[in-house]
Design goal:
134 residues; mainly beta; five-stranded antiparallel sheet; four-stranded antiparallel sheet; 9 strands; elongated
Length: 134
């Protein structure tokens, strides 16, 4: 069973707004084996006046034991979206941790049509297994 959204983060950098909503995915998690799975949906909106292309990503993922993993790669889910002013790009991806909670944060490396570049922040968001009442 996928739970309702549990966390949200929003960051605005140089006209690029990055919003994140995460969900714990119980049907893919196996807590007794130390496998906890989350899906996160990211919406990238260009609220500025200049177009930009998302070239790469840098994630910093931490679990509850303090283990840090950094992930870098081109684009997002196989794409390098071009965002004209007033447009958005949305995608969903996932994260697997060995603990029932953790955090993610990072940046997208963006390039403007004029060749200038900047990092768009992805504000930290929590990955938490929902609590149940018996």
């Amino acid at each position: 069973m996928t739970t309702a959204p549990t966390t949200t983060s929003v960051a605005l950098t140089d006209g690029i707004r990055v919003s994140v909503v995460s969900r714990y995915i119980a049907e893919q998690s196996v807590p007794r084996l130390g496998r906890y799975v989350w899906a996160y949906t990211i919406r990238i909106a260009n609220e500025g006046t200049k177009a930009a292309r998302l070239m790469s990503r840098h994630w910093i993922i931490a679990d509850a034991n303090g283990k840090i993993e950094e992930v870098r790669g081109p684009g997002v889910v196989g794409e390098q979206p071009h965002l004209a002013p007033g447009t958005t790009h949305q995608y969903t991806s996932g994260c697997v941790l060995a603990t029932s909670r953790g955090t993610m944060r990072g940046t997208y490396q963006m390039v403007r049509d004029d060749g200038s570049s900047f990092d768009a922040d992805i504000a930290e968001f929590a990955l938490e297994m929902p609590r149940t009442l018996n």
